[in-house]
Amino acid sequence: MRRLVRHGLAGLGAATFAVVAGVTALGASTTPTVAAPPVAAAATGEFVPVQFVPADPVADAERAATAERDTREADRARIAATTAQAAYQRAVGLGTQGRAIDERSSEIKAEIKAAKAKAEAAEAAAEAAEKKARDAAIANEGYTPGTTDVREIARQILMNKFSYGEDQYACFSWIIERESNWDVHAQNASSGAYGLPQSLPGSKMASVAPDWRDNPATQIVWGAQYMKSRYGSPCDAKSHWESAGNY
């Protein structure tokens, strides 16, 4: 037992000595050591390299995909915004055009209305002028210009120039039918009586107008005047003709 204790104490002393020796050796300067060079402070604005960190392929791929998706969405949003702006500008333009069209439409409607009123006024003035001319011609000739039927000319002349009605016209027509059968150029070969009323001579009708040879109106006016001045009226002339065979 004593022997084991002595051996243990001896081992402990040896260990203690070794530790002390080691500490002494660390604190001694007999073996020189090289210190790391001091890191100089970076000047302002000077590039300071960053220690490279190895990339993570999966994270890099996710970031790239996200960036690409965001870029596409931004492009689509920009295109949509541009399209919407263009549509808005077109709408504004169409609205402006629409207002201009409405304004022009109103102007055109006003112009059409004014032109219509002017045309109607011109038409009314033309009709009034025609009526005035027709009335003047009737007052002068006794019948409506353009009338070609000889019997109708006679009816109008007896009404307009002599204020005769249908009864006097009937008597006048009765005499003219027997005298000339309404032939403007009828001429009696033996006596030389001429025209509708068989004026003798025919030149007597020149007292009405110089166109007595061919104008039925001139001959009718002369015949009606003759019947009125000699017998009082066509019907009175008819009564005389019926009794005497002439008038």
Task: Write up this protein.
- It is a single chain.
- By secondary structure, the protein is an all-alpha fold.
- Mean pLDDT is 80; it is low at 1-36.
- Helix content is 66%, strand content 0%.
- The chain contains six helices and no strands.
Ends apart, CA distance between termini: 207 Å
**Helicity level, as a percent range?**
55-70%
Low-confidence stretches: 1-36
- Determine the number of helices (DSSP H or I, runs of at least 4 residues): 6
Shape: rod-shaped
Helix vs. strand class: mainly alpha
CA radius of gyration: 69 Å
Largest sheet: none
How many strands?
0
In short, what is this structure?
By secondary structure, the protein is mainly alpha-helical. Helices cover about 65% and strands about 0% of the residues. It has helices at about 1-25, 55-140, 150-160, 165-180, 215-230, 235-245.
Give me the secondary-structure topology.
Layout: H1 2-27, H2 57-141, H3 150-160, H4 166-179, H5 216-231, H6 234-244
Helix pairs in contact: 3-4, 3-5, 4-6, 5-6
Organism: Microlunatus antarcticus
Pfam families: SLT (PF01464)
Coiled coil: 105-139
